[in-house]
Amino acid sequence: MIKILAKNYSQAVSYLCDKFDLEIVKYDLTISSSKSTISKTIVDAVSGNAKALIIVGNVGDVCADFSEALSLAMFYDKFAENNILKYCTYAKVEVPPQYVLDKLCLIPETFNHFAPVYGFQCACYGEYNKKQIFFVPDDVRECSVVYDNYISKNLFKGQENSSKFIFKIFGLSQRDVEMRLEKLNRNVSRRFETTNLDTKLVLTFAPKASKGLINDTVAVVKDLFGDNIYANSDVSLSKTVVDVLKSVGQTVSTAESMTGGMIASSLVDVSGASSVLYEGVVTYSISSKCKRLGINPHFVDEYGVISQQVAQAMAVGLRKNGSGVAVSVTGNAGPTSEDGQPVGLCYIGIATERNVAVYRNVFLGDRNSVRAQATNMALYLVLKTLTK
Predict the structure, then answer these.
(1) Secondary structure letter of residue 36 according to DSSP
(2) Strands across the sheet with 131-137, in order?
(3) CA–CA separation, 279 vs 239, rounded Å?
């Protein structure tokens, strides 16, 4: 059992809960700003059967709460001070005054700080009564760094001898994935997370699992998900696209309307994308589509800006500029219908030297979710076009 304590339910707390759900780990969450409740929760966690205690919040306050609850001495950590000074130099921000440093750098005796990445607050770690204790800043970015580099490696050491298989799957809802996984052997540990139609599935086999069980299970997964599987490792969709473009010696261009540059941005996030991304344009207005991509305004009037015909014309017009593959997106991300077109309707065009195809999709969710799903779908369609 892992105990999580916080004064507020934040993105960082939600992130930890999601990660533990994915690991199929039992945890107990306490949200309270009451000093007595915080103190009691800390004492119960370190004296009970909890494997670890994770306290999320302002690390200076968290350290003080923990030390006070257990009557522990605190000391000033010069390591934390040096890391804060380095961060200030790197980020080109002023060094906090000494009274702020005093609060940030005080830590329970025998505990250690971790170097910060996104701010002044240094997460810290220690052991008390054979329990692992983590103090984590209430910043989801910093929390993710601490989780990946420290929490998961310390709390899940026993899983290192297990056989683990990872599959990246695209195009299915969380419910679709759940239904298909019901056909797997129930003795096989499985966990997955789905975000904007992109799923990471992890299968874990016990150290003594037979090769027959492993091979049969992997074969069943491949049969259940088929072409929806795009990778057999923990690699992003955008990196997979960049790697395939490199392997076939192709470049890609993007003409984006509803996604507003998100496709190009996803590719640029991948190191080495400069060798395969030819250009990215955001042709958001009708005028831009016509002038930048050479589409006749009367053509847009005839078929409507959100249409199969316009998506095709966008991709064809873009590819004339020189890239091997051109991808276009036009649609309605919401929140209301547009020219009679439903929210979530999206047309994605893929043009190559030999062919041009347009795919119609209707995505569910809010505006940002629809745009993210359209971005992922465009990347997936480029991948499928290249690997046919």
Answers:
(1) H
(2) 27-31, 2-6, 52-57, 131-137, 124-128, 112-113
(3) 17
- For the chain, the C-alpha Rg in angstroms (whole number) is 25
Q: Please list, in sequence order, all residues whose beta carbon lies within 8 angstroms of the beta carbon of residue 146, skipping any fewer than 6 positions away.
A: 114, 123, 134, 136, 137
In terms of Cα–Cα distance, which of 253, 381, 259, 252 is closest to 330?
259
For 146, list phi and psi in degrees, rounded to 5: -65, -40
Residues 6+ apart with CB under 8 A from 358: 308, 311, 312, 315, 347, 348, 349, 350
Residue 64 has pLDDT above 80, yes or no: yes
Cα 320 to Cα 374: distance, rounded to the nearest angstrom: 23
Backbone φ, ψ for residue 13 (5° rounding): -65, -45
Distance CA 264, CA 318 (A): 14
* pTM check: above 0.90: no
Q: How far is CA 58 from the centre of its chain?
A: 24
The model's pLDDT over 326-367, given as tens digits with 9 standing for 90+, comes to 999 999 999 988 878 899 999 999 999 999 999 999 999 999
What type of residue sits at position 142?
Answer: E
Asked if 231 contacts 168 with a C-beta cutoff of 8 angstroms, the reply is yes
ω into 335 cis (within 30 of 0): yes
> What does the alpha-carbon distance between residue 278 and residue 240 come to, in Å, rounded to a whole number?
17
